[in-house]
Amino acid sequence: MSNEPSYKNRKVITIGIVSELTGLTERKIRYYEERKLIFPERSAKGNRKYSFSDVEQLIDIANKREEGVQTFEIRQQMLRDKRKEAERESRQQMLRGQINARFGIQRE
Asked: H or E segment at 13?
C-alpha cells in the first residue's frame, strides 16, 4: 500500500484556480487561512497549493458564512469534529487489537 495521499488530498491546485472553482476571492481564501480554517501547503517558491478536499472545505465555509456563522464558530466546530474523529479512530484501533489478540492474529 502506498503512503501517497489520495488524489483528493494532494495539494496541487493554485489559489487562482481555487478562486475560480469556489467563487471566493483570493483575498477571502487567504483570510480563511489566517483564521486557521484552511491549511494550504507552500511550493518551493512560496505559492499556496490546495487540494480538492480544501476546495470542498472552502465551499462549506462559504456556505456557513452565508448562513451567518462566524469564523470562530466554524473553527470550534472543526476542532470538535477532529477530536471526535480521533476518538473514533482510537476506539477502532483498540477493537482491532482486541480482536487480533482474541483470535491470535499477528500483524506484519
From this structure: strand 13-14
Alpha-carbon distance of 94 to 88, in angstroms, equals 10
Cβ-based neighbour number of residue 37 at 10 Å: 20
Residues forming beta bridges with residue 48, ordered by sequence position: 42
Which residues face 42 on adjacent strands? 48
Picking from 51, 55, 39, 54, the residue whose alpha carbon sits closest to that of residue 10 is 51
The model's pLDDT over 43-91, given as tens digits with 9 standing for 90+, comes to 999 999 999 999 999 999 999 999 999 999 999 999 999 999 999 999 9
| Nearby residues of 75 by Cβ (< 8 Å), 6 or more positions away | 35, 36, 37
Pairwise CA distance, residues 19 & 15, whole Å:
6
Q: Which residue has the cell 477502532?
A: 92
- Alpha carbon distance 106, 22 (integer Å): 47
